[in-house]
Amino acid sequence: MMKKHSTLALVALVATVIAGGALAAEGGNPKKGKYLYKKHCKACHSAGAEAPELTPLSKTMKQWDRYFKRNKHKHNPDAWQALSDQEKLDINQFLFDHALDSDQPQTCG
Ligand code: HEC
Question: Which residues, judged by CB distance below 6 Å to any ligand atom, belong to the binding site of ligand 1?
């Protein structure tokens, strides 16, 4: 009896984690994210600049979420930390919505 119960609980937990994972980039404002991306990221991350060109379709949705979950930018950690959690969520949302495997893959424009 006990055993059956905990198995059910585990199944419910796993289902929650999976559903939560799929929605990882929910809650950000992609319009703001695009603006913030251009303002805070593009200077370095465009063709001919110091860092490799980076646009939404440089990565898959999962890869973007993983990057923002790690919440580290090794090469200019101060600027990264200066962004609020909401701002990072917005940027995450913009990149996620237009990732390589999204419905609307996009370069930054
Ligand atoms: C001051 C310049 C600078 C700014 C501003 C900057 N980056 Fe970077 N970024 C770099 C450099 C340099 C690297 C390392 C490139 C390499 O690995 O060769 C890097 C690496 C990265 C990587 C890893 C590259 C990869 O292919 O996985 C990601 C993702 C990234 N930056 C995202 C961002 C985002 C998002 C922002 C804006 C919030 C941002 N960066 C702002 C300079 C910058």
Answer: 40-41, 43-45, 50-52, 54, 67, 73, 75-76, 79, 91
